Amino acid sequence: MDKSIFFIERLVVRKSGRHIYDEKYHLGINVIRGDHSVGKTTILEVIFYVLGGEIKESQWLTPADLCDDVLCQLNINGKVFTLKRDIDKKSIPPIYIRSGNLELKDCEAEAWKKFGPRRSESNNKASFSQQIFELLGWDTHKSDDYANLTMHQILRFLYVDQETSSARLLRAEDNPRADSEGIRTAIFEFLLGLDNLDTHKLRQELLLTERQFEKISADLNAMYKLMGRDSTLTSEILEKEVFSNLDSIAQLSDFPIETKAETDVQKERDKRFRKLDEKVRLLNRQLQAFKQDLLVVNGEIVDCEAYDQSLKYRKKSLLESRVSYEEIGVVEYNHCPSCMKELQNLDDDCCHLCHAPLDGSQINNNYIELITEIDFQLTSNQKVLDEYREHQSGLASTIKIAEGELKVAQQELESIAKMVNISSQKAIENSREIGYLESQNKNLVKMMELIKELDKNKELKVELNGRITEIRNKIEVATSSNQARRDKVIAGISENIVSIVGGERRDNGDPYEEVFADATESDIEIDFAKDRYLIDGRIKFSGSSNFVKKNAFHLAALKESLDDPEYRLPRFLMLDAIENGGMKPYRSHNFQKTIFNLFRDRKDFQLIFCTSMVLDELNNEIYGVGPYYEGNVLNLQK
Q: Which residues face 608 on adjacent strands?
């Protein structure tokens, strides 16, 4: 896969329309320098936030929590975007994204596009995580957001903060549900490229399917409690009972003709006749309406099926087109295909026909956007198609029952038309029995609807259970086949970790930790699910050594990502814990030298870290961001 990269070009924090922080960043090493407690950490927290991180109300730092919004000029795979996010402590606000740099006025750039933290089902609007993933070229599985990795989860790896325990690799989470072993494993494997894309999709699909299974199980339990012993009935049994009642009604309606005639009886007969006649007319109208609805629904189903085939064909064509482009590249013309005249002023960086600038990343983004839109349309169309099919089934059943009721009503009407006298006791009893059976049928029809819903959920539960087993088997097979890739990545990270921690020395030349000095690749044990790694079987060392060990892992992964295109890690990292644990200046300077040497002569990444003990070689405008701060970085009085 092509390497994905993003880096910050400029960051602005605003208060009452004023820029209280406005600094430019660059590729390579970026150092935020300043005294203790001047707000260096606050800047990294703001970056974490504007890129999609979530900060709890109680975790906001002052004075950032008093500001209005933050803007970030971000370069994603060679194209510049500006992100804007309001500072709101009580919610998870959306992110606004537009093309172009931060200086462009709205009238000069693309309009702001709003992306919320969750995908909108009503209008198929992507979340900000999905949008940024697509710009980075990370394919995402189109399902509910809880089955997707989000920017917040990705940033837990990319931002090493001060508050999280030095024994943990990912930023800590308050919500246990957002920090399960499965999610932690997914973060590491996704960013390190340990799972191929199909395996990542399978993991996401497994999460979604398991959630659906849990919901269906809960719905079924609720229905069982509501229906009691009736839950053992079937639609077939209830339908037979409905038609049995209809037969009984028909027999009761077809009683013998009486010979007696009385005025009151005649009036009662006429009243009953008019009532039944009205019922027959009503049933006829309803039946015609149901049949008309069925014709419409059948037509809509045909249209949806045709549209589905059309969308699938369009997606297949797009994918084939993308493969062709990747194999062949841009088609170059020497002559106009219309008039055959030789083209002039040919430029390799522009289209030979329209002279528009060529941007490979933009072409890839266009493919991604088109395929994403088709996927949304396919999902929406399938949802509509399922609803129409369910409606079709319901209409067919309703028409069948309505036809039976109409037949009974017509028979009863015909019988009354033949009657001379209905005053006999038998006729009255029959009429009452008919009313009871009709009422019972109404209840049976309602019960049938509940039973159908129950049966549907039962079938879905069995189907989901089978799908969960199938997905787990596929993941197991894929994981086994991907072992070679996993071994390569772990070996590369381990080698870098050893080179980083192995050079840790005191001013007298002795190692800070004997284990660090003697460590080899085989001594490194990384456990993604438990969010930790061990050196020579140990997790914990001294306070400052723990943070050296923790930072070494993230720097090792960043270093490996620069030469391994299978990494999805976007060649970006923020460190805010290089001086934690009682770090002394000498050790901090040595660690900064290690960072400097690790990335010497490389500019295909961005590393941002904070320090109050800046190394002389880094204390300049080449590596520094802003001045050496002695007062608060966010100056509200500015």
A: 30, 574
Report the CATH number that the domain containing residue 337 is assigned in CATH.
1.10.287
The last residue of a domain, from among 440, 466, 492: 466
**What is the signed CA dihedral for 386, 392, 393, 396, rounded to 10 degrees?**
180
Residues recorded for the chain: 638
- Minimal CA–CA distance to 187: which of 152, 211, 160? 152
- Whether the Cβ atoms of residue 92 and residue 73 lie closer than 8 Å to each other: no
User: Closest Cα partner for 40 from 52, 53, 30?
Assistant: 30
Residue 473 lies in a domain: no
Burial class of 446 by CB neighbour count within 10 A (0 to 12, 13 to 18, 19+): exposed
> Which residue is it, tokens 């009238």?
107
Question: In the block, which residue shows the tokens 């990494």?
Answer: 567
Same domain as 289, residue 385: yes
Looking at the domain assignment, is residue 625 inside a domain?
no
Q: Give the span between the Cα atoms of 413 and 417, in whole angstroms.
A: 6
The residue ranking higher by pLDDT, 410 or 451, is 410
- 217-265: pLDDT as tens digits: 777 677 666 555 555 555 566 667 667 767 676 766 665 545 444 566 6
Mean pLDDT in residue range 500-524? 91
Residue 550 maps to which CATH number? Answer: 3.40.50.300
List the one residue out of 332, 368, 337, 276 whose CA is nearest residue 77. Answer: 368
Q: What is the mean pLDDT of residues 123-138?
A: 82
pLDDT at 358: 59
In a domain, 631, yes or no: no
Last residue of a domain, one of 433, 466, 499: 466
Q: Is this structure's pTM higher than 0.90?
A: no
Q: Which pLDDT score, from 0 to 100, does residue 329 have?
A: 60
Q: Do both 364 and 259 map to the same domain?
A: yes
CA separation for the pair 161, 587 (Å, rounded):
19
46 lies in a domain?
A: yes
Q: Rounded to an integer, what distance in angstroms lies between the CA atom of residue 370 and that of residue 358?
A: 18
Q: Can you read off the two tokens belonging to residue 383? A: 């949802």
**Strand, coil or helix: 354:** coil
Domain that holds residue 446: 230-466
- Which of the 8 DSSP states describes residue 583? -
- Domain identity same for 395 and 446: yes
Q: Indicate the number of domains in the chain.
A: 2
- Partners of 13 in the β-ladder: 21, 70
CA distance 2 to 604: 13
The two three-digit tokens of residue 200, written as one number:
């990542």
427 and 296 within one domain: yes
Specify whether 181 is located in the same domain as 286.
Answer: no
